[in-house]
Amino acid sequence: MNIDKIKLILADEPAYRMKQVWHSIFVDLIDSWDKCTTLPKVLREKLNAEAPLEIACEVFGSQKSRSLKALITLEDGNKIESVLLSHRDGRKTVCVSSQVGCSMGCTFCATGKMGRERNLTVGEIVVQVLFFARYLKSEGKENNRITNIVFMGMGEPFLNYDNVWKAIRIYNDKDGLNIGARHISISTCGLVEGINKFAKEPMQVNLAISLHAPNDELRSSLMPVNRLNPLDELMFAVKNYIAKSGRQVMFEYMLIDGVTDKEIHAKQLIELMDNKLFVVNLIRYNPTGSHKSSSATAIIRFKNLLLRAGIKVTQRQTFGTDIDAACGQLATKNKKK
Ligand code: SAH
Ligand code: SF4
């Protein structure tokens, strides 16, 4: 499905046509133009031939972890992945990609190992959510809708800033998917320029920072971006955002055995977390080759040190390691074939 092509075909039609079509795509969630009976037959046939609604996709399910992964094939043959996470409390989160691959080169990340192919178009970002919206509808259960969106799939969203925001406006559209800004989060590896721009946006989208290490030496060794924007610059930008928005910021911290999970790291992290609106989200490292993930005991020990210091801590539910539902792993495997 190509949203730009659809728009192009409808450009010569009266404005109400686009409204009808938009409603059919984003509210009725149709997957074939034949279901759009309000359109004249000729137009339907043209759309069917030139801009079909099908999304080329393979789905991988994980019963155990309540997650589903969609591997979407783009028009140029590149593949991207998105994941639907069904939380125990009923929330349904779609984790979307913003780029094919990623140029930031974080050593622990499978997507990073692919390098960057290209930015996704607005349509390519939007269809990832649309795919799962249709999927949930097809299950036929009541209230089965997407509640949250996180930009935590492949790619660095702030390197595709404009398209990411255009896609967010489409997700948020009251006459479409109608997903509230406060239910949408962007995760960045810490690009200060992007954070400063983000701080000026009027919409109340959430900000998450992939911190993963509490000192410059360690962070630079894991995340090359830290050499460009070291911790003091990063924290300054985040605090500036908080001063403007008054909103909470989530710091993602990944526990890698013997690398980021020592007591000294917890102490350094506590020092950095000197704002009431900071929250730490502990993530278990998903082994991608180079390191081992921390043991359950080490994670509890680390978490307790933070809690005792009065830091707000959450822990990411581990979803779908059995289907590689994290960080570009499946797409990388497919590329290698
Ligand atoms: N580029 C953005 C968003 C996509 S990555 C960013 O880095 O924030 C989504 C999250 O998964 C990030 O927090 C990232 O650091 C983390 N991640 C990457 N590789 C991982 C791995 N092997 N195990 C666990 N989390 C990982
Ligand atoms: Fe890119 Fe994020 Fe992976 Fe780093 S962690 S390589 S920024 S996708």
UniProtKB/TrEMBL annotation:
InterPro entries: Aldolase_TIM (IPR013785), Methyltransferase_A (IPR040072), RNA_MTrfase_RlmN (IPR027492), rRNA_lsu_MTrfase_RlmN/Cfr (IPR004383), rSAM (IPR007197), rSAM_sf (IPR058240)
Pfam families, A to Z: Radical_SAM
Main localization category: cytoplasm
Compartments, record wording: Cytoplasm
EC number: 2.1.1.192
Needed cofactors: [4Fe-4S] cluster
Binding site for S-adenosyl-L-methionine: G155, E156, S187, S210, L211, H212, N286
Binding positions ([4Fe-4S] cluster): C102, C106, C109
The keyword Plastid belongs to this UniProt entry's keyword annotation: no
Catalytic residues in the record: E81 (proton acceptor), C327 (s-methylcysteine intermediate)
Catalytic activity: adenosine(2503) in 23S rRNA + 2 reduced [2Fe-2S]-[ferredoxin] + 2 S-adenosyl-L-methionine = 2-methyladenosine(2503) in 23S rRNA + 5'-deoxyadenosine + L-methionine + 2 oxidized [2Fe-2S]-[ferredoxin] + S-adenosyl-L-homocysteine; adenosine(37) in tRNA + 2 reduced [2Fe-2S]-[ferredoxin] + 2 S-adenosyl-L-methionine = 2-methyladenosine(37) in tRNA + 5'-deoxyadenosine + L-methionine + 2 oxidized [2Fe-2S]-[ferredoxin] + S-adenosyl-L-homocysteine
Co-factor remark: Binds 1 [4Fe-4S] cluster. The cluster is coordinated with 3 cysteines and an exchangeable S-adenosyl-L-methionine.
Domain Radical SAM core stretches: 88-322
Any single biological process term in GO: rRNA base methylation
UniProt keyword list: 4Fe-4S, Cytoplasm, Disulfide bond, Iron, Iron-sulfur, Metal-binding, Methyltransferase, rRNA processing, S-adenosyl-L-methionine, Transferase, tRNA processing
Stored SUPFAM superfamilies: Radical SAM enzymes
MF terms in GO: 4 iron, 4 sulfur cluster binding; metal ion binding; rRNA (adenine(2503)-C2-)-methyltransferase activity; rRNA binding; tRNA (adenine(37)-C2)-methyltransferase activity; tRNA binding
Cited NCBIfam families: rRNA_mod_RlmN
Family to which the UniProt record says this protein belongs: Belongs to the radical SAM superfamily. RlmN family.
Extra facts: Reaction proceeds by a ping-pong mechanism involving intermediate methylation of a conserved cysteine residue.
Role this protein plays: Specifically methylates position 2 of adenine 2503 in 23S rRNA and position 2 of adenine 37 in tRNAs.
Name the record gives this protein: Probable dual-specificity RNA methyltransferase RlmN
